[in-house]
Design a protein that fits this description.
Length: 258
């Protein structure tokens, strides 16, 4: 059993190009061990590259097939799969892009990749029953400050210096490259969530973004309101909370201990 585990380890390292040392114990059977393992290595690389393209179609469109293949090869070497589920593969692609020398001229690319992965996560997130406004009516108004809300499992957030939502929308299969986008004017705060079958990308102002981010990490309503109004005195908190309800972002709540 121990020898089998070592063979599996060495096989994995060779196929994922972590090692050039051929595993011992591989029988030729018509092909040399090196030729046989090269087939596995090539098929693995192609399969993982295809999985990355499926998760990052906009990055692929922006940089082209050849450049993307280079990104994928670097990613596969730096981040070998840890699970048999390919849906989970690619979570660190934006980090790879941030440090990829040939991509430094595309300053927005890492943020676009992050947006695509958050879209991927939101799409595959669990469903949840939406909380009704009537549920809040049963709470004593004196206890409102202790409310802690739970957001929909699909809710994801990203802020960028670049108009990444417009770049993403402008590079969908049916609407590619039709709009000129000025990268100098487009900082954005975005919410991604899946209220039904489709992922929505909403642009938020800074007060709404801060409000939702605080709620998402379990901050009480009183502390959230205090923080938001300190940073954004003109924020309309009741409207912000109403928007959360209308969007179907809130799924549950509880009262925090004093």
């Amino acid at each position: 059993m121990h020898r089998l585990r070592e063979l599996q380890r060495d096989f994995s390292r060779f196929v994922l190009q972590e090692s050039q040392q051929l595993p011992t114990g591989v029988k030729s059977m018509g092909l040399s061990a090196e030729q046989r393992l090269a087939i596995y290595r090539n098929n693995t690389r192609l399969g993982l590259t295809a999985a990355l393209r499926d998760s990052y179609p906009v990055v692929n469109r922006l940089v082209g097939e050849g450049f993307f293949a280079g990104l994928a090869a670097a990613y596969i070497k730096s981040y070998p799969p840890q699970s048999a589920c390919l849906l989970a593969y690619g979570a660190h692609f934006c980090e790879l892009i941030s440090g990829f020398a040939a991509a430094q001229s595309l300053a927005y690319l890492a943020d676009v990749a992050k947006l695509e992965w958050l879209w991927h996560e939101a799409y595959h997130a669990a469903d949840a029953r939406i909380m009704s406004a009537a549920a809040l009516a049963q709470i004593d108004p004196a206890a409102y400050g202790r409310l802690v809300f739970k957001l929909h499992p699909s809710a994801r957030f990203i802020a960028s210096e670049y108009p990444i939502a417009r770049i993403w929308a402008n590079n969908q299969a049916d609407d590619a490259g039709r709009e000129y986008i000025d990268l100098r004017n487009g900082a954005c705060c975005l919410l991604l969530y899946r209220p039904d079958r489709q992922v929505e990308i909403d642009s938020l102002d800074q007060a709404e973004y801060q409000f939702l981010r605080l709620l998402a990490v379990g901050t009480t309503l009183s502390r959230t309101v205090e923080t938001v109004l300190t940073d954004h005195p003109d924020a309309n908190v009741p409207i912000l909370l109403q928007h959360c309800l209308l969007k179907g972002l809130l799924t549950d709540f509880y009262l925090a201990d004093v």
